[in-house]
Amino acid sequence: MQSLLLLLPDFSLILLGAGLRRSLIPDGAFWAGVERLVYFILFPALLFHAMAGADIDPGKALPLFLAGLGVMVAGFVLGWLGRPLMGLDAIGFASRLQCAYRFNTYIGIAVAGKLHGAAGVAMMGALCGAMVPFANIMAVGMLARHGHGGLLRELVRNPLVLATLAGLAVNLSGVALAEPFQFFLKRLSDAAVALGLLAVGSALRWGEAGGRWGGSAWLVSVKLMLLPALAWALGRQLGLGGIAFDTLVMFAALPSASSAYILAMRMGGDGPGVAWLISATTLLAVASLTFWLQLL
Fold this sequence. Notes:
InterPro entries: Mem_transp_PIN-like (IPR004776), Na+/solute_symporter_sf (IPR038770). The chain is mainly α. It is 80% helix and 0% strand.
C-alpha cells in the first residue's frame, strides 16, 4: 500500500492530463506546444541542473550504465523474439519493437525523486541521459531500414542528450554555477515533472491495437515484468546496491516512452499501434511499478 501511495500523485497527474485533453482542453495544438516546451526546454534544464550538481563516482556510475545498457539490449532481443506473435509487416514491427526497451524519462525522474530525493533525480537523470543515445540508435536504425530519416541527425538534435553531456561537462570542470542561474534552473526543473506527466496523460490513445493480441501482450510483458526481473539479477551480479540498484530496477520497469510514437510517425511507421502500446504500458505500470517498489 505504501508503494502505491508513493506513485499515486504522479499517476494522478497522468490521469489529469488525459481528462483535460478529453474535456476541458481538447485543443491538440495546445498539448503539442506543452510537449515541445517540456521536451526542448524544461526537461533539458532539469537534466542539466541535476548532472551539473551531482556527486558523480565513476566507480559506481560505470557498472550502473553498463547494466542499463544490458537491460535495453535484452529488451530489444526479447522483443525481437516475439515477432512471430505479431503478424506485422517490417515497418509495423520496427515501430512497435521500440516499446520493448524505450523508457519514459518523465515518470522515471518523478519516481526517483520520491524514492531518494535530489540524489535519486541525479542518478536517474544520468542513467536515462546516458541511455537515450543507445535507445535512439536502436530505434532509428531499425526504422531507417524501412522508413525515412537518418540516425546521426536524430542523435545530434536530441535535447536530452545535449543537456546531459553539457551538465556532465560542467560537473567535471569543477565550475560552480552562479546562484541566480541555479535558481532559474530549479524553477524550470520544478515545472518539468508536473507538465511532463500531464503531457504523458494527454498523449494516451486507445483504439484497435492492430496485429495480433499475443504480440502486444508479449511486448507489454517484456517491458513491465521481464526487464525489471533481469535488471534485479544483473544488478546483484554486478554488486550494485543502495540508490544505484533501486535506480536500475526502476529504470527497467518504466513504461514505454511517448517519444516512440513521435519517432514512428516522423519516420513513416505505425503510429497508432505504438500509441496503443505506450498507453497500455503507462496505465499497467501503476500495478507493475507498485509491485517492484514493494520488493525494493
